[in-house]
Amino acid sequence: MASDPYTVITDQPQKGGGSVQMMARPAVTGCPPGLEYLAEIDQLVVKQRVELFEAITSIDMKNRYQMTNSMGQQVYMAYEESSFMMRCCCNQARSFTMHILDNNGQEVIRVRRPFQCCAGCCWCIKGNSCCAFRIAIESPPGKPIGYVYQGFSWWKPKYSIQDEHNDEVLSIGGPCCACQYFCGCTGDVNFRFFDNSGGEIGSVSKIWNGCVKECFTKADTFNITFPRDLDVKQKAILIGATFLIEFMYFEAENQS
Hints:
Blueprint: H1 36-39, E1 43-48, H2 52-57, E2 64-68, E3 74-81, H3 84-90, E4 96-101, E5 107-113, E6 134-138, E7 144-150, E8 158-163, E9 168-173, E10 189-195, E11 200-207, H4 211-216, E12 221-225, H5 232-255
Antiparallel strand pairs: 1-2, 1-12, 2-3, 3-4, 4-5, 5-6, 6-7, 7-8, 8-9, 9-10, 10-11, 11-12
């Protein structure tokens, strides 16, 4: 189990004195422990928690997230592990490890992003080259199940979703403009999932949370949709891809 520097919330108070309902662990076999939840869902909402100290001081704190299904039941919690110097000096390009925990506080997915000082130019990318931003997804922690690589593109963001053998199983295509702050775009920003035949199978959308929240906090919300019968490992990789997209396109935007 990961050593969480924050309290793992399994019964979070809500307005009106209620609490967050937890999704029951499905009786599913044949998948990595903790991914059983993903076998029963086709939608996941990822909400970043507002850090009051960060909102007041603009000092970047470690990110924390809550993940819920379409009925609002908590499925996972996630927290970032990164150094203070990385967050202050490298901002959205920083290395991090994202620990994803189930409702029992057990780490079930681990997302690792290395620091790459010269990566990110989509024109220079060729295959899985050092120019591509990338992340690795493990489940259980220590056992890789897939990777996400930034893809070559002249303009629109592209990503390659690969299994543990580096074979491409899915891809992601983004919009021409992925910003909501500088351009005054107040709609959702959609990154679409495609299978190897080019068919669209889902998306991850950065939800517009309103001017006040968008301007004064960096608490983003993402809505992930995928086929219910998609392999749970591929669903876990798409969750990892969401964090890469968050850091590449929306972390710095909200810092500004």
